[in-house]
Design goal:
This protein is of the alpha/beta class. The chain folds into two domains: 2-143 and 279-291, Rossmann fold (3-Layer(aba) Sandwich); 145-269, 3-Layer(aba) Sandwich (Rossmann fold), CATH 3.40.50. Helix content is 34%, strand content 29%. It has helices spanning 10-20, 60-76, 105-115, 130-135, 145-154, 170-180, 223-234, 251-259, 281-291; strands spanning 2-5, 23-25, 27-31, 37-41, 49-53, 81-86, 120-124, 139-142, 161-164, 184-191, 198-204, 211-219, 239-247, 262-268, 276-278. Strands 11-10-9-12-13-14-15 form a seven-stranded mixed beta sheet. The protein is globular and about 60 Å long. The protein starts with a strand and ends with a helix.
């Protein structure tokens, strides 16, 4: 097995290769004057199982095109099989038609990868795992919630309560609570019919005098996390932290989140950013050893 380090995830890919005890292939990349991407594998992958690690965070279009070019390069170079690791998969949130005449962008991305002869796709907390079944491509979706929870456990948060921003994400809070041990809960959103104001209502879980970690897959603008934090603080929470797999927030959004009562936001390196305190490299390496 050879790990190919895509431009968006070169550092993560190098660590995956080290932990998996396998070879690492550098990637040459540059921009043409008109903005197009150039990609070249700097090593041979002939007759090898190539694992391309490339996240598709902003600029999404550039990173996605780089990924597609890397797959084609590996296939043309006669790799015995190609596995694509997309720690953060862009366009995954459009998983169905919400309004007439829309595309399903998640399916579009998967159909292209399948047409390029990708053997399997590995993601981390992807938005809609069920989309992969509709496209009939082998898929492994990993959860980073366990390693995020263990990060807080190592910091002395044993007994902290785990919360999810809504009922759909309650499974993440439940998973984290098995490690932190302080129980879990979630919220529902309610809209005032007169003012139109949206508020969070604590549906399950105790907040009074508790240390709490809010777990989510993605934090972008941070609006949901801020409402949840204010609700928890209003219910008597001692301290509130937030953890997510994919951090798409700007520094301005981060400051606003802290202003809502959150002590710190911790994320993984699926998207390398200033909040990345937890690495998914070990999770990916272990999975790749098992799969390939």
């Amino acid at each position: 097995m050879l790990v190919v380090g895509g431009p968006a995830s070169a550092e993560l890919a190098r660590e995956v290769a080290r932990l998996a005890d396998c070879g690492f292939v550098e990637v040459e990349t540059k921009r043409f004057p008109d903005g197009e991407s150039y990609i070249r594998l700097a090593g041979e992958v002939r007759n090898e199982k190539a694992v391309i690690v490339q996240s598709t965070y902003p600029p999404q279009d550039t990173h996605l095109v780089q990924l597609l070019l890397l797959v084609d390069a590996a296939v043309r170079s006669k790799a015995s099989e190609v596995t694509v690791v997309i720690p953060y998969m862009a366009y995954a949130r459009q998983d169905k038609v919400f309004r007439s005449n829309e595309p399903v962008s998640a399916e579009v991305v998967l159909k292209i990868l399948k047409a390029l002869k990708v053997r399997r796709i590995v993601t981390v907390d992807v938005h809609s795992p069920e989309v992969f079944g509709r496209v009939a491509v082998e898929h492994v979706n990993l959860s980073a919630i366990g390693i995020l929870a263990r990060h807080f456990l190592d910091l002395g948060f044993k007994g902290a309560s785990s919360f999810a921003p809504d009922r759909k994400a309650a499974r993440m809070a439940e998973e984290a609570s098995k490690i932190l041990g302080g129980g879990y809960g979630w919220f529902s959103k309610q809209r005032d019919r007169v003012t139109g104001e949206v508020s969070m209502v604590l549906e399950q879980g105790e907040a009074e005098n508790r240390e709490i970690v809010i777990f989510d897959d993605i934090i972008s603008s941070g609006g949901t996390v801020m409402m949840a934090a204010r609700t928890l603080k209003g219910a008597g929470a001692k301290r509130v932290y937030a953890a997510c797999t994919h951090a798409l927030m700007s520094e301005e959004a981060y400051r606003k989140i802290l202003g809502s009562g959150v002590e710190e936001v911790v994320s993984t390196d699926t998207i390398p950013t200033f909040t990345s305190k937890v690495s998914v490299a070990g999770l990916l390496a272990e999975t790749l050893r098992r799969l390939t």
